TrEMBL record:
GO terms for biological process: methylation. GO terms for molecular function: S-adenosylmethionine-dependent methyltransferase activity. This is Methyltransferase family protein. It comes from Sulfurisoma sediminicola. InterPro entries: Methyltransf_11, SAM-dependent_MTases_sf. The lineage of its organism: Bacteria, Pseudomonadati, Pseudomonadota, Betaproteobacteria, Nitrosomonadales.
Length: 243
């Protein structure tokens, strides 16, 4: 599977409806996650880390022109040391990977103890999920992705030692193509949060890497900052060399 074309779909009224909700929820979640290094895997044209205040923020594509530093990376093989990243955001990255569980394994490897991962995905148990089941395989994104349910994602988190921390569902309106119809269904946003909160078309879920039985002794602020700079230096150099 491929995420090719998904960014173009996000420019449509249907896609913008989803994107506006996702960015707003990411702003709420990542603003209160602290550390030194954060990376966004997927959709490098957009900045899901815009509300985060970490000094070093990366995007996993060297063509990106947004605020995070751009690096060449794939979700299955990240160019970062073990226990070196404080935050990883995965906007729809799992849905277009053949082995999404392995992606989470790689995320677990690079995250520091108590580091966070934030996953965005389409909810298969929603009107959007029903639309995907009726779609032909030849249709463009977002209907080609493999939708991963929140219960399944929580099971994967638990197997990898993550603890689910926060999350939200949104986009309760039917997946109409035209903006006027999306506006007419606007009342479902308020009703959905109250009456059927688990039926939103998309979700955002945060989990924290726990290391049981280990006492976490954090280095001093100066030491951590020095390590963070050491991490970002070779990445920035590679970017400069490629230009």
């Amino acid at each position: 599977m491929t995420i090719s074309g998904f960014a173009d779909w996000l420019e449509t009224p249907q896609g913008r409806y989803v994107l506006d909700w996702e960015l707003a929820r990411h702003d709420q979640i990542v603003a209160d996650i602290f550390g030194f290094n954060a990376i966004q895997l997927g959709l490098p044209q957009l900045d899901y880390l815009r509300a985060n205040r970490m000094p070093f923020r990366f995007s996993s594509d060297d063509r990106a022109d947004v605020s995070p530093v751009a690096v060449r990376a794939t979700p299955l093989q990240l160019p970062f040391a073990t226990n070196s990243i404080d935050l990883v955001v995965l906007p729809h990255a799992l849905e277009f990977e053949d082995n999404p569980h392995q992606v989470l394994r790689e995320v677990e490897r690079v995250l520091v103890p108590e580091g966070s991962v934030v996953v965005t995905g389409f909810n298969p148990f929603s009107l959007w999920g029903a639309r995907r089941r009726l779609a032909r395989r030849t249709l463009p994104p977002p209907w080609r992705g493999q939708y991963i349910s929140v219960p399944r994602l929580k099971d994967w988190f638990a197997l990898l030692g993550f603890e689910t921390r926060a999350g939200a569902f949104g986009c309760y309106a039917p997946p109409a193509r035209q903006e006027k119809w999306l506006r007419r269904w606007d009342f479902m946003e308020r009703a959905g949060d109250r009456w059927w909160p688990f039926a939103g078309g998309v979700y955002v879920l945060q989990a924290i890497k726990r290391v049981h039985g280990m006492r976490l002794i954090m280095p001093t602020w100066t030491d951590r900052k020095a390590r963070a700079r050491a991490l970002v230096a070779p990445v920035t150099q590679k970017k400069a060399d490629s230009q």
